[in-house]
Amino acid sequence: MKKFLAALLSILLFLHLIVIVLPVEAGAASGDDSLALYAQSAVLMDADTGRILYAKNAEEQRPMASTTKIMTLILALENANPDDIVMISDYAASMPDVQLHLRAGEHYRLGDLLYSMMLESHNDSAVAIAEHVGGTVPGFAALMNAKTRDIGCYATYFITPNGLDAEDDTGVHSTTAADLARILRYCIMQSPKKEEFLKITRTNAYSFSDVEGVRTFTVGNKNAFLHMMEGALTGKTGFTGNAGYCYVGALRQEKRTFIVALLACGWPNNRSYKWSDTRKLMNYGLEHFTYRNVWQEPKLPELPVKNGIPDRENLEEEARIRLRLSSEEPDLKLLLSEGEQVQVETHISQEVTAPVEPGTLLGSVRYLLDGQVVKVYMVEAAEDVEAVTLGWCLEKLWRKYIL
Q1: Which branch of life, at top level (predicted)?
Q2: How confident is the model at residue 12 (pLDDT cuts 50, 70, 90)?
Q3: Residue 160, strand partner residues
Q4: Which residues of 272-295 are buried (b: 16+ CB within 10 A; e: fewer)?
Q5: How far is Cα 81 from Cα 325, in angstroms, rounded to an integer?
Q6: What stretch of H or E contains 261?
Q7: Among candidates 295, 353, 347, 289, which has minimal Cα distance to 319?
Q8: More confident: 28 or 284
Q9: Is 369 exposed, middle or buried (0-12, 13-18, 19+ CB in 10 A)?
Q10: pTM of the model
């Protein structure tokens, strides 16, 4: 009985520690619907840090329809040349609406198809792009899934390049609101092709022809949010029967960049719900979050150095070493709501052994919000300390007993 009680106590203590240690997303709790959103899953994100400021069922996996195409675009920009010539396959030409009505055997410039896919969400253009970049649609899907892991999205699974509902032996074509926001953050903040991404997705209208010059097209941007709010930056709509209306978009005002991701935001006849929710979340961010300088001068101790040679003038003292930050940034500005405070943790090595060279990493200073690390400064040795040698020992004996 005593062993059972001891084991039970250990389990309860372990669970208690988990509750204390696990990080919590900033802002609202995962299932919060205090803003009375239509979307079944929603996220408001600070694009600069990736911190989630508001979340409703942010980690629930759902189909994401044509918001998928932001990943298709960024992969095409990063892995191919817009001047490449794409031949249209029978499979690409067979895609259902919405489509450009491509014909098998036609040739198009890749860059033109990117505008077709993003401005009017053409499914046939998306497949033609995928086949050109990845060889096949499954090959391109493998690139998509590898990229999601690189970005840090582990609850997303891609099967199609256009977002049509799909399922295979591995899973359902789906993502989460949190992952979808992270993907757009990569596209506009981190990718080496971010400027090209923004240029395409912000274009109002675009005209082009097939390579042979037989057919000419003009496509117009269907992202109505670009004209709804000052600072609207980019975005992509989506709809399928399983996904409902979806949207992911970004806005920039006063050096603040917010990303909104919405999944399952109504079904016909609720087309306008996504715009209502997007405005509501963007306004929530603008009204509640401002930049504050949270920099604090760290108090770094001098560390004793084991087996180190002390100052030549004080051979009897213990060797010690001064510390400094590897890169000091006295202006650490974070997007915070009123009342939010950062926690600062200093972690320094407990034991240092000579020899030590300047720049040797010996710890870190971490800034945290709600348990999540938002900034790390590395702590390093500011000077060198040589290791004790036979010559030093003889000098010490000479000074102590002979001089």
Answers
A1: Bacteria
A2: very low
A3: none
A4: ebbbebbebbbebbbebbeebebb
A5: 42
A6: strand 256-263
A7: 353
A8: 284
A9: buried
A10: 0.83
Alpha helices in 168-272 (DSSP H): 177-185, 194-202
353: left (phi over 0), alpha (psi -120 to 50) or beta: beta
Pairwise CA distance, residues 384 & 156, whole Å: 48
Longest dimension (CA), the chain: 102
Q: Under CATH, domain 41-288 is a member of which superfamily? A: DD-peptidase/beta-lactamase superfamily (3.40.710.10)
Where do the structural domains in the chain lie, given as residue ranges?
A: 41-288, 303-402
| 3-class SS of residue 174 | strand
Edge-to-edge, what's the strand order for the sheet holding 320-321? 320-321, 303-306, 352-353
Q: 361: which strand partners? A: 380
- Tokens 């891609």 identify what position? 158
CA count, 13 A, side-chain hemisphere, 307: 10
CB atoms closer than 10 angstroms to residue 391? 8
User: Is the CATH code 2.60.410.10 the one for domain 303-402?
Assistant: yes
CA 165 to CA 396: how far, in whole Å?
79
DSSP, residue by residue, 264-284: S---TT-TTHHHHHHHHHHHH
pLDDT at 224: 96
Q: How many whole angstroms separate alpha carbon 305 and alpha carbon 309?
A: 8
Nearest residue to 322 via CA among 380, 282, 270, 249 = 380
Residue 16 has a pLDDT of 34
Nearest to 73 by CA among 109, 118, 139, 116: 118
Better-scored residue on pLDDT, 375 or 85: 85
Which residue would you say has higher pLDDT here, 321 or 259? 259
Q: How far apart are CA 87 and CA 123, in angstroms?
A: 15
Structure tokens at 26: 């900033």
Contact yes or no for 288/258 (Cβ under 8 A): no
Kindly state the DSSP code that residue 172 receives in the 8-state scheme. B
- Dist. CA 366–CA 149, nearest whole Å: 25
What confidence score (pLDDT) does residue 329 get?
73
Name residue, tokens 């649609």. 137
**Phi, psi at 5, each rounded to 5°:** -65, -40
Q: What is the mean pLDDT of residues 16-21?
A: 29
Residues 6 or more apart whose CB falls under 8 angstroms from that of 4 comprise none
Query: Taking residues 186-203, what's their average pLDDT?
Result: 98
148: number of CA atoms within 13 Å, CB side?
A: 24
